[in-house]
Specification:
This protein is mainly α and about 130 residues long. It has one domain. It is built from 5 helices and no strands. The chain is elongated and about 60 Å long. The N and C termini lie far apart (about 65 Å). The mean pLDDT is about 80.
């Protein structure tokens, strides 16, 4: 029973991690120190998708499910939980590359915006013409 609860908790953590990889840059806009967690997480997320690496969270979940007497599953978290809901077709390397590219693009856009904001604060925004001081 404990292993099953741990496996279910790990699935929830895995989903939250994926959402953090994709949208964590938006949190960095509000809480700057979070950048030190988000950048490595985003790099890992892109690497897993683009290089087709195995995610250790999937392996840990499978081990917990087997210890609980349940069957594990092949493939990764996205293929098992998310992909069947969104797309009934099997996950292909091309689609994984596209997913990794989306993660990278979203984060590059967010961080470009973030660095522009930081630069503007650091050097001060130029005042509009005719603005009173």
């Amino acid at each position: 029973m404990l292993y099953r609860i741990a496996a279910d908790g790990l699935v929830l953590f895995h989903l939250l991690f994926i959402l953090f990889v994709l949208f964590g840059g938006l949190l960095v806009l509000k809480w700057r120190p979070l950048i030190w967690l988000h950048l490595p997480a985003a790099a890992w997320g892109v690497s897993v998708e683009v290089l087709h690496l195995a995610c250790p969270l999937t392996e840990w979940e499978n081990r917990m499910r087997l210890a609980a007497g349940q069957t594990g599953y092949g493939g990764g978290f996205i293929e098992h939980y998310v992909w069947p809901v969104i797309y009934p077709a099997a996950l292909t390397p091309e689609i994984q590359l596209a997913l990794g590219s989306v993660v990278l693009a979203v984060n590059v856009l967010v961080y470009l915006r973030l660095f522009k904001l930081w630069k503007a604060r650091r050097y001060g925004k130029p005042r509009a013409r005719g603005a009173r001081t």
